[in-house]
Amino acid sequence: MxxxxxxxxxATQADQPNTRIxxxxxxxxxxxRIAKIKTAVLAxxxxxxxxxxxxxxxxxxxxxxxxxxxxxxxxxxxxxxxxTLAWYVTIPVxxxxxxxxxxxxxxxxxxxxFRKNKFMHNLMMALVWICRPSTINPWARRHxxxxxxxxxxxxTDLEERAIxxxxxxxPLRLLMMLDLELSIVLRIFKVPSxxxxxxxxxxxxxxxxxxxxxxxxxxxxSTYWIVQGAAWLVGYTVPWPSxxxxxxxATANTVAVLVFAPNLLRSFSxxxxxxxxxxxxxxxxxxxxxxxxxxxxxxxVIPHLFCFNFGSTHAIHHFVVRDPFYIRQMTAKRAHEVMRxxxxxFNDLGTxxxxxxxxMQAA
Length: 363
Prior knowledge:
The structure is a single chain. The chain has 16 helices and no strands. By secondary structure, the protein is mostly helical. Helix 12 (246-277) packs across helix 15 and helix 15 crosses helix 16 (325-341).
């Protein structure tokens, strides 16, 4: 386990605020700004916890949200299988429930639930991964994510770069945000040749077994319908092997509605929001003011529906790590006020033209 991971695991909420607001390696003006933002957000979090004592039961709340999300997914799937819900209702509803499990995984990576109960902590980690089989192993992601917090927006921030942060905004980038396996294949040649095999092996290990099965299944399924569609357009009948029966295709369609499509919708939404609310390349390493913007424009209401308002609240997390996702929602009003006063950008849509750079690059 990394040193940063150890520090997070042993940290307690009783830590004094002044241990969290030291930023000694960036410009003095932003050091002051960061201290003001952290102090205000910590105070607001403490105020809300005092107002609502139930929030002290963080382990219970986390597990309750997880079990409710799983029940929501299972119940929605059952209604679809019974013919009560149409596919176009089933897919977004399941995606919304899955968005809660993504937030729980993120909190678990920071040891926010069952810090002192290893079995329960790892059980939650396993369950949130099973709920979202298209994603990397969360234990592997932990090290990428903790490094992201140390060096967000730099060349070594592999977590954000993997979801296209810093790339030119093109239709290809949209496709890469939808299909991260395709993204890896398309960008592997940007990795130095002597490191490509190692990068591929590490990626394969992180995706095994759930994501491997998911992406193989998705690509086989999508290839089948692409070929079928192309053949239909030219009036050709594809001579599929005998094992590809109508019953198999019908089963695959059901899996697409209940597994493939909701996961793709959810992951595209979080990848779109996250990769464009983080800045890349020309920011000061460790400068929280420059790492993220707040994306809470009405134009992003649809992707936010499937990633639990991530663009509005995630920047808060870069300043104060201790609070779980639901408390960040509760502190957002006060946090946004002090963040705006201290130089954090809001709805900087120019990021799409600048490839997520802080400033426009010279031609």
